[in-house]
Amino acid sequence: MAKRGVPVGPFPPGVDHDAYDRMRRRVLWKLPSGLYVLGSRCGERRNLMAINWAMQVSVDPKLLAVAIEGTAVTHELVMSGRCFTLSLVSREQRGEVRRFVKPAVEDLDAGTLSGVGYRDGLSGAPIPALAIAWLDCEVRHVLATGSHTLFVGEVVDAGFADGGEDAEVLRMEDTAMSYGG
Ligand SMILES: Cc1cc2nc3c(=O)[nH]c(=O)nc-3n(C[C@H](O)[C@H](O)[C@H](O)COP(=O)(O)O)c2cc1C
Question: Ligand 1 pocket, 103 CB below 6 A?
């Protein structure tokens, strides 16, 4: 894995590595994407994580790919639990997503993860109460890509919360946050 702050090649001929690295990052940040909450579970360990690297990759079967950093708690849980949920969040809930940029704290008595209620989906992975829509997946393929692992899951269940189909979905550009690059 690349050291943080050290430009990653390959580099086109004749460029300044640092300047090129900064510019390339800005190009990568321009890629439009949603901002979601990924639920994972192995046994009785559950987590919710903010994620924007997610997309559909097959129509038949219905496959969804998510890229998860190797050092994340979520990586360990998806690798061993073999399932995940991807929840869409409304634009009004943009502040709530910040709860999930570090490992979630589970309160078993309250039934919450980082203060947010959840229920377990068909796969067993948690779906946060703030979801306006959700996709529940079982892992079918795992591809180590570098800093991240691409987990490809088959959608085994999906649904909308009440009014969820009409809500505006949270996207990266609705926030001041960036990821990757
Ligand atoms: C806007 C935003 C987008 C993110 N997107 C991803 C992503 O696509 N993949 C990923 O592995 N981590 C992503 N993260 C980082 C994780 O949310 C964060 O590191 C997380 O707490 C680590 O996962 P863990 O709780 O499972 O340890 C993103 C963070 C932010 C703030």
Answer: yes
Alpha-carbon gap, residue 24 to 88, rounded angstroms? 28
Q: How far is the CA of 50 from the centre of ligand 1 (A)?
A: 5
| 36 CA from centroid of ligand 1 (Å) | 10
Which residue type does 107 have?
Answer: D
Q: What is the pTM of this model?
A: 0.96
**Backbone dihedral angles phi then psi of residue 173, each to the nearest 5 degrees:** -70, -10
116-169 pLDDT tens trace: 999 999 999 999 999 999 999 999 999 999 999 999 999 999 999 999 999 999
Cα angle 105, 111, 115; round to 5: 45
Smallest CA separation from ligand 1 atom 23, residue: 72
Handedness of CA 153, 58, 145, 15 (dihedral sign): negative
- CA 98 to ligand 1 center in whole angstroms: 10
Return the CATH superfamily for domain 35-173. Answer: Electron Transport, Fmn-binding Protein; Chain A (2.30.110.10)
